[in-house]
Amino acid sequence: xxxxxxxxxxxxxxxxxxxxxxxxxxxxxxxxxxxxxxxxxxxxxxxxxxxxxxxxxxxxxxxxxxxxxxxxxxxxxxxxxxxxxxxxxxxxxxxxxxxxxxxxxxxxxxxxxxxxxxxxxxxxxxxxxxxxxxxxxxxxxxxxxxxxxxxxxxxxxxxxxxxxxxxxxxxxxxxxxxxxxxxxxxxxxxxxxxxxxxxxxxxxxxxxxxxxxxxxxxxxxxxxxxxxxxxxxxxxxxxxxxxxxxxxxxxxxxxxxxxxxxxxxxxxxxxxxxxxxxxxxxxxxxxxxxxxxxxxxxxxxxxxxxxxxxxxxxxxxxxxxxxxxxxxxxxxxxxxxxxxxxxxxxxxxxxxxxxxxxxxxxxxxxxxxxxxxxxxxxxxxxxxxxxxxxxxxxxxxxxxxxxxxxxxxxxxxxxxxxxxxxxxxxxxxxxxxxxxxxx
Length: 439
Fold this sequence. Notes:
With 439 residues, the protein is α+β, with helices and mostly antiparallel strands. Helix content is 29%, strand content 35%. Helix 2 (95-109) runs antiparallel to helix 3 (127-138) and helix 7 (280-292) crosses helix 8. This is Ribosome-releasing factor 2, mitochondrial. Keywords: GTP-binding, Mitochondrion, Nucleotide-binding, Protein biosynthesis, Transit peptide.
């Protein structure tokens, strides 16, 4: 069976591949219709379980839009009136249709049900592995967006344009999910996260040209992450009187190296009795507070990853507010991180460089000074070779210009994130100095 035959199990399915903002029509969503017919006035379900209504349908004709009443499968349409969709969303007729389609398809392929994704299994004829991979691709309802590797602050020219800037950033985020916008409660700044220097320049340029706001961007900072080296456990106890009400919490948490589950409970005999008395709602509050503390590490303020918070014991005074418990859990995690310390993880980029054969030695020599790992050098054509490299982002600032200089403009390059890597102590010191503005 092919991908088209798989799609018959859904009544309607479409993929949002682009969003543009029109001055007269507002946000316009470009949808590729995979299955079924999209009609004006249709009610659709988005990836985020929100309901959308297609107010108007347009057929794209170069830079002109012609209003139409319906779009058949296999065609592209422009939808007006969708408020919650973002680039990469999957649209279906109903939420139950998507789940039902997955179950029926798994039965056809004789694969076990496993929630949102299907695990790959081997078979004698080798078809099952390919089928399982295809099912995973079809039902990948959320776009896979890599983590931001750069961040910087963004400020409006005046307080009167603050709301306009925030509205512009929301619209840009709908168009480009790789753009991250956060509010830093410590510095009181709006922080942008993106995929590179050019990405940030384009965002600034679009805000200026399309929204007429002369925003200022702060210096670009590399988005380092942090992680713990060894498991660490500590307790935190706090008592205060707020508005005549006594608030008290005593909590014991442990941080572990773990890649999957971010929060767990200690099921040992000595703590099971205590944790069994904690209500599920309160466990949710504790979890939220503890995990929020992992958003900002003690060294450079990077997100703490590959770390699990384990709750061992907690005693909550009568009448203690949920916000007080949440704050106590967060402070306990911060105390452990500060005491035990963390290690920095730096973003690594995968580069593919195509250059003439006579320029390869000069390129490799320059990359070796940038702490790069040369994975492969192979022929690309009669005159050119392809170099596959992994290199730290910190060493690649302005590298495209350097590459053009080395090769006299004869080389081309592509670069994309490929994860994070541990740093040695010397590189860590330089990274911290750079983040603090001392380098």
